[in-house]
Specification:
Elements lengths: L1 E6 L1 H6 L2 E6 H12 L6 H11 L3 E4 L10 H6 L6 E5 L4 E5 H13 L15
Antiparallel strand pairs: 1-2, 1-3, 2-5, 4-5
Length: about 120
């Protein structure tokens, strides 16, 4: 199995997250990004940051994923990590950062974006 690992600027800015995409999902993302306008500064920044820092990683026979040092360092990865499913990708968090962030989310009464959820029900 091949996965593509990309640093997530918002997560690392908040404390230690990498995005892990299975190859078919990464290829879909690439097709979306390639259509962005070349002269748009935000699109250029996204391409340089996301594509430029992505790395294809193999999972070994024991199920381990060897992350490049640059990505491990940027997301403050150590021996304790959390793998969090996010539908079409996974987030890989430093465990301490995840626990802190999870507590922040639980304690927050942030309502930003609530109206965008519309009639979502469980």
């Amino acid at each position: 199995m091949v996965v593509t690992v990309a640093v997530n600027e918002r997560c690392t800015g908040e404390g230690g997250c990498l995005w892990l995409y299975p190859l078919p999902e990464w290829e879909k993302l690439e097709q979306t990004i390639i259509k962005l306008p070349t002269l748009n500064k935000a699109a250029g920044k996204l391409k340089r940051f996301l594509i430029g820092n992505a790395s294809e990683c193999e999972i070994d026979s024991q199920g381990r994923l060897l992350l490049p040092e640059k990505l491990r360092t940027s997301a403050a990865m150590d021996k304790k990590i959390m793998l969090v499913g996010q539908l079409n990708k996974f987030e890989l968090w430093n465990e301490a950062a995840w626990n802190s962030k999870e507590q922040d989310w639980m304690d927050s009464d942030d309502t930003e974006g609530v109206e965008e959820l519309g009639n979502l029900s469980f």
